[in-house]
């Protein structure tokens, strides 16, 4: 599974509508409204790299109200369970 974190800048008057439209796209698993430089963060999960272009460049970036995107590909995923194991001192 390939995970991409997409920072989305959009028309601030349409943030809820843009978020809903992005969330409805196949390959998008979550959309967060956030503070900071981006208005939304979309989590995209696909099986093959080629699918990223279809989801992000061909569909997400063309949602009405999206002004810009910045995509970050995840190398590894760390869950709470993984982090607890990595920092465990074996004192169970």
Core attributes:
92 residues, alpha+beta, Alpha-Beta Plaits, 4-stranded antiparallel sheet, 3 helices, 33% strand, globular
Protein architecture, described:
The chain has a single domain, classed as Lrp/AsnC effector binding domain/regulation of amino acid metabolism (RAM) domain (Alpha-Beta Plaits, 2-Layer Sandwich). The mean pLDDT is 91. 27% of the residues lie in helices and 33% in strands. Strands 2-3-1-4 form a four-stranded antiparallel β-sheet. The chain has helices at 15-23, 49-57, 80-86; strands at 2-10, 28-33, 40-46, 66-73. It has 92 residues and is of the alpha+beta class. The radius of gyration is 16 Å and the shape is globular. It is built from three helices and four strands.
């Amino acid at each position: 599974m390939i995970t991409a974190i997409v920072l989305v800048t959009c028309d601030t008057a349409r943030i809820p509508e843009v978020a809903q439209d992005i969330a409805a796209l196949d390959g998008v698993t979550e959309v967060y409204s956030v503070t900071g430089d981006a208005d939304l963060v979309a989590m995209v999960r696909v099986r093959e790299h080629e699918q990223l272009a279809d989801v992000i460049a061909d569909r997400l970036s063309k949602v009405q109200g999206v002004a810009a995107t910045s995509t970050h590909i995840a190398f590894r995923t760390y869950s709470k369970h993984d982090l607890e194991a990595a920092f465990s001192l074996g004192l169970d």
